[in-house]
Structure prediction request, 319 residues.
Amino acid sequence: MKNRKIQNHRISIQNKLAACAAICLISAGCGMGYANFSLALEEIPSGSDRLVGLFITDTHIDSGTPEIILDSRGELTFREQDAKIYGSLTDDGSETPVTFSGLEGYGIYSLQLQDEGSPDICNIFSADDVFTDLHYTASGNNNTVEASLYVRADRPCARYFHPVYQQADGRIYLLPGSGVSSDSFSEGTQYSKSVSQSQSTVLSGHEDTEESGFTVTLIAAASVENTEVIFMDRKNQVIGILPEQQLDALFQKEPARLELPDHTAYVILQQTTTHSGEACRSLFDQGEEYLEYMVSGEDGYLHSRQLLLVWPEDALLSP
Prediction:
């Protein structure tokens, strides 16, 4: 099963979760406490480095112990260690644009990359397929990204959010961030993490300010147990059923598409969850471009999937 696909478009998955529960916030190397999600000291970037994303792991990243120095006056000073973990841009067609050696996780990015064979700089937005409900807003010099992460409510949860920065030379690094952990992450629990940055430059006496921010909301949801697609005609009669195994095989192909049988008037996506065992159904009418759904992964996330719907000609021509 593919666990990742890069998303360069918006995916909207309807969320009907409402419950909430207390959760334990864990700062990076500073014990436990409640945070207002501002950048910790070790998360402050240097110079003009740009905030370009968030990288989420299920393990804590140690930011290192400050070095204690005794100066010539007999005074103790603390020197922070360089907590930067540099990443590599991938250009081999792999499914994620940035990798961090030795770290497993998922990232959401808004990068500035030079167009090959051109001096122009391109803004590239990408996200691994665990991110859903994506909203990218660009207004003047203000850029914000919002997304959701669905985690399985049937197991303990620990997630850490690490801000990612890009240097003027194009190199990318992350800094250890804070996170959340719970042994009882019940269905409907939500936790939001936000990081933001404001940078000002002065040219010819005019100050120009650029602001960027990322917000990711962690949502606990029931695991999906079974998925199938039901094809219906105009008389509301079932004309075919596509089981989960065949649906998964279609998703593995490039491009991922679902060609609907003749006389299909609409499609029903039916999924059952481990929590209630009841079927949840979603309707896709003629003209819907994509079939969107979620599947449970062994990594503890619910992964979003998207198949292009190819409607039969008789359905498109019918009044």
Remarks:
- The longest strand covers residues 206-221.
- The chain has a mean pLDDT of 79.
